Amino acid sequence: MTSIPLGGASFDRAAHHRLDEDWLDRAFQNEDARVLLMKDGMPLVVGGQSGHGPRPMVWLGPQAAMLSDKAKRLFLGLDDRDAPVFALDLPKRFNLDASPIAGLGVFEEMRAALGGLDAFDANAAATARSIFEWHHRNGYCANCGAKTDIVEAGWKRECDNCGAEHFPRTDPVAIMLAVKDDQCLLGRQAGWPDGFFSCLAGFIEPGETFEDGAARELKEEAGVVAIGEAEYLFSQPWPFPSSLMIGMILEVESFDLVIDESEIETARWFTREEARSIMAGTHDEVFAPPPMAIAHHILKAWAERD
Amino acid sequence: MTSIPLGGASFDRAAHHRLDEDWLDRAFQNEDARVLLMKDGMPLVVGGQSGHGPRPMVWLGPQAAMLSDKAKRLFLGLDDRDAPVFALDLPKRFNLDASPIAGLGVFEEMRAALGGLDAFDANAAATARSIFEWHHRNGYCANCGAKTDIVEAGWKRECDNCGAEHFPRTDPVAIMLAVKDDQCLLGRQAGWPDGFFSCLAGFIEPGETFEDGAARELKEEAGVVAIGEAEYLFSQPWPFPSSLMIGMILEVESFDLVIDESEIETARWFTREEARSIMAGTHDEVFAPPPMAIAHHILKAWAERD
Q1: C-beta atoms of B203 and A170 within 8 A
Q2: A206 and B131: CB-CB below 8 Å?
Q3: Residues of B in contact with A166 (CB under 8 A)
């Protein structure tokens, strides 16, 4: 299986600990505790200034406890030496420079940060970001409108008023390469950098399989009709804010395109030879998503076939 | 591809019409309009009493408009003759027997009803039920607590207060057969009918791929460790209330089980010969889910292999 960044289950979620507040409090202050910090969806990475290229993430130990009264705490799980792994979401008002951890690092925009993280850190940061963003947008009960509380170590919200339970969303998104003969279809949205093309994609709706959703999006966005059996390749959690990307290849019946310009700016067929040069970074006009994105791996998988 | 009930995209969702209120109002009163009725999550099916075995669904024409001021209206799409297809969700207080459509049918519990529906009706009813149940549990804005309004022909809710947009949930669930050598693992929950066994399953969490989530659930529930590459088979929308079932087969490293009794009552290994007799309905003790359920098709796919 191709290894796709962000997923990969680098830590044991040890979900049985989520209900045990005493255990969680002790684990958080254990000398082997590992704590990542996040603010406004940005992880704390090593260095003095943001935007200076790939850097590792800052992991705090039990000294993170001194920040925890101001922060939301999430128990991520146990690492491969059974050390407890947590994330703290610092409030907007948190002033890094005036804090006890001034000088340890800098909060970096998430997409930029991910490029510098190893598999463990990327999986932990992606999970934490997705959960924290969900808490930010879900402080109230959708069922009754009352304020809700965080429970189960950060993995759930509960409504005292009506009793409803709320779990973080994970929204399945079909992302697919339409192919015919020896060509594949890439599209681009208005506002993307010049020459940047990627796979078409869209949310799976209630009542659809992956394959239904992928075929519908291809029809809606580019006017192409899927035939035969869709091929599932791999999936990827994508924490912007809570997508689960489902990578697929679908054969379509014709090269004729009808572009829905409210969805994409354009779409264009590329030969396999061109796809290879795009992946190699040697295409004259076109470049593709970086290895962080599942679209990169979908295009690569197809380009490398004979 | 094995055909799995409930999905299959039997109608064109024609999502470009969702924003056009005038078109929707006209289409709803078109003479070729097709309207299914639902109440408390139950579709209206032909017959005088519920619980009397499989029956087709009742489709109303434009006369459904006389019910629409009491009901939520959902535009499902266009059928293969381009006739507009709608669903109405009737309020709890709606009294069928005292209504203008008394005698046309009966509201039937969804799982029982589905067994009697053809592919088109099952896909339409499953989609409508999932959306309507979501509306029932999501009348308020999770971001600010204000009441929200239904927009886009039933496919979205909007908050006038904070501007947040809310889309129906589709919750990915891994449902998988653990296999080793020529045996497969089925489990059962306390409270299921005697002898009923099925695949293990659980929700995908933020930060997980399908394969991560499936492996975690197998470990949590039965103590078995997945090895090698998970095999994706097919997916199914499951409207109870909004799951998207992801059918997989995973090889595991040992027959040893450690059951988490808070999740399942027990789990047990079956030989392929036994799996075949379960599918044939001739096993002495054990029976499996009906063809409506994706678990049936997962077990069948594996049982029929050489």
Answers
A1: yes
A2: yes
A3: 142
Q: What is the pLDDT of residue B116?
A: 86
CB within 8 Å: A1 and B131 = no
| Residues with pLDDT less than 70, chain A | 1-2, 50-53
- Give per-residue pLDDT as tens, B179-231: 999 999 999 999 999 999 999 999 999 999 999 999 999 999 999 999 989 99
- Closest-CA distance, B201 to chain A, in angstroms, reads 15
Compute the 3-state secondary structure of chain A and give helix, strand, coil in percent, each to the nearest 5: 30, 30, 40
pTM (two decimals): 0.96
Residue B2 is classified by DSSP as: P
Q: A145 CA to chain B: closest CA distance, Å?
A: 4
B41: left (phi over 0), alpha (psi -120 to 50) or beta: left
B145 contacts on A by Cβ (under 8 Å) = 139-141, 145-147
The torsion region of residue A276 among left (phi > 0), alpha (psi -120 to 50) and beta comes to alpha
Query: Is residue B42 within 8 Å of B55, Cβ to Cβ?
Result: no
Residue A178 gets the label, from left (phi > 0), alpha (psi -120 to 50) or beta, of beta
**Is the alpha carbon torsion for A278, A215, A292, A48 positive or negative?**
positive
Whole-angstrom distance, CA of residue B239 vs CA of residue A172? 15
Q: Phi/psi at B243 (nearest 5 deg)? A: -90, 155
CA distance A170 to chain B (A): 6
Are B54 and B115 spatial neighbours (Cβ–Cβ below 8 Å)?
Answer: yes
Chains A, B: CB pairs < 8 Å: 174
Tell me how far apart the alpha carbons of residues B15 and B19 are, in angstroms, rounded to a whole number.
8
- Chain A CB contacts of B170 under 8 Å are 171-172, 203-206
Say if the Cβ atoms of B209 and A171 lie within 8 Å. Answer: no
B170 with A206: Cβ contact below 8 A: yes
Q: B215: buried, middle or exposed (CB in 10 Å: 19+, 13-18, 0-12)? A: buried
**Beta bridge partner(s), residue A188:** A266
DSSP helix/strand/coil, A1? coil
Amino acid at B233: L
Record the tokens describing residue B266, joined without a space. Answer: 């027990």
Closest CB from B138, B166, B170 relative to A204: B170
Beta carbons of B149 and B135 less than 8 angstroms apart: no
Helix axes A294-303, A272-280, angle to 10 degrees: 130
Q: What is the DSSP letter of B72?
A: E
Least CB–CB distance from A137: residue in B8, B143, B237: B143
